[in-house]
Amino acid sequence: MSTNRTAVGRSAPMSRTERSAAPDVARGLALLGIALANSVSHISGRELGPSFRPIDGTDADRAVDVVVGLFVDNRAFPMFTLLLTYGLTVTARRQEQRGAPWARTRWLLLRRTLWLGAFGLAHLVLLFESDILLVYGLLGLAVVPLLRARERTLVVAGALALLPYLAFNGVDGMPGALSGPPVPLSFDTDSFTGALAARAAIAVSYVATAPLVVLVFLSPAVIGVLLARRRVFERPAEHLPLLRRLALGGFALSLPGAVPLVLASVQALPVGVAGGYVLGILHAGTGLAGGIAFAALVAWLVGVREQGAARGGGRWVASGAWRVARAVGQRSLTCYLLQSIVMVPLLAPWGAGLGAGAGTALVALVGVATYACTALVAVLLERAGRPGPTEVLLRRLVYGRPAPATA
User: Fold this and answer.
1) Separation of CA 146 from chain center
2) Which of 390, 377, 297 lies closest to 79, judged by CA?
3) How far is it, in rounded angstroms, from Cα 101 to Cα 368?
4) What are the structural domain ranges in the chain?
């Protein structure tokens, strides 16, 4: 009897066959958006306007600014955040189905977020000041206790957190605003050691302001939990009307809401500091709807194809592009870190310095090429039937060594 309880309650990571297609594909596509969004933060030596775009960009720069401003900025990160907490909720449910008590599940999830934050701390200090993993580690410490909260409690918490979310992201619209974390630094970031010291100071500021960091990201996190409770992305064929409303309604809000700040970023709409801040709030608020819409669109397409295949008596076979995105999404931690390993040394002043005096078209090209490289790595690992190396490490740290096979 005791052996049986141990087997039921044992914690184990999700296998590849248990994973749902929609969250992985959405996560893979979100990483392309993150590569594009992060690329702008490496521009140096230029006078920046709203959205941290150079005020004297070329026609190619302006074209990139429009596309990224409409579809990526303040859209990719909310999408990635809600997918993170969606995954935490799924993991908690699987542990409950295995018979694990909540105390064990809670410690498992907290251990995972703590290690994720540790990865982020190392990533931030060693390479990239706009790291998101440390933020997610801090966010997870607040979200895990909420996983069993009543739905009304979650809705109220998410609604109240909208104010700091909008207030923080409104800074993006202010002309001449400093890119990166709002920390006064006086380090020589043109050298690796100076940049290292600056990033260490930023890491300290993140930890010191942890409650604010959590509040800023709590709204999309709560949305991920609520969607996971209904298994919307795991069983998309059962939720097609909801997914259609989320996708179409989200884009109906997101695209018009992005236009004013996009016009300001390409210098077609002059704004002052106060006006830019208002446009930044509008862009961020509607961007939350856009992040939901992108994830819902992916799940909607998956659900429609699965439903069509079921009616035809067959199984949906994903296209090549979808398989690539899914391979990236299944190895999102590895691919996210690879983005910095490739892109930062190319663009940073202490590296090749391609970001010095660059426009948005050039850094976006580097971002897309970097994503392509990480996608190639993910596809090769997929063909070999292997997870990403950082996924393996994280699972080992969280779950321990796999149990030995028994007859």
Assistant:
1) 20
2) 297
3) 44
4) 17-399
Q: Cα separation of 233 and 296, whole Å?
A: 8
pLDDT at residue 406 tops 60: no
pTM of the complete model = 0.90
Backbone angles phi, psi at 158, to 5 degrees: -65, -40
- If you write DSSP's letter for every residue of 306-323 in order, what string do you get? HHHHHHTTS-----HHHH
Gap between the Cα atoms of 194 and 129, Å rounded: 13
Backbone angles phi, psi at 345, to 5 degrees: -60, -25
CA proximity to 215, closest of 105, 125, 90, 81: 81
Q: What is the mean pLDDT of residues 171-198?
A: 71
Strand partners, 356: 44
Three-state SS string over 329-393 comes to HHCHHHHHHHHHHHHHHHHCCCCCCCCECCCHHHHHHHHHHHHHHHHHHHHHHHHCCCCCHHHHH
Which element (helix H / strand E) includes 214?
A: helix 210-229
Nearest CA among 299, 171, 328, 169 for reference residue 224: 299
Each residue's pLDDT tens digit, 172-184: 898 865 444 444 4
Dmax over Cα atoms in the chain, in whole Å? 73
Amino acid at residue number 313: G
Nearest to 328 by CA among 369, 292, 382, 365: 382
Task: Decide: residue 249, CB within 10 A, 0-12 exposed, 13-18 middle, 19+ buried.
Answer: middle
CA distance 52 to 367: 16
> Residue 402 gets which letter from DSSP?
P
295-341 confidence digits (pLDDT tens): 999 999 999 888 877 676 555 556 788 899 999 999 999 999 999 99
196 Ramachandran zone, left/alpha/beta (phi>0; psi -120 to 50):
alpha
Task: Give the integer Cα–Cα distance in Å for 231 and 225.
Answer: 10
At CA 70, angle to CA 64 and CA 74, rounded to 5?
A: 105
Short-list 324, 329, 327, 338, CA closest to 385: 327
Q: The tokens of 225 are what?
A: 């939990």
- Termini Cα distance of the chain: 18
Label residues 253-264 b or e (16+ Cβ within 10 Å = b).
bbbebbbbbbbb
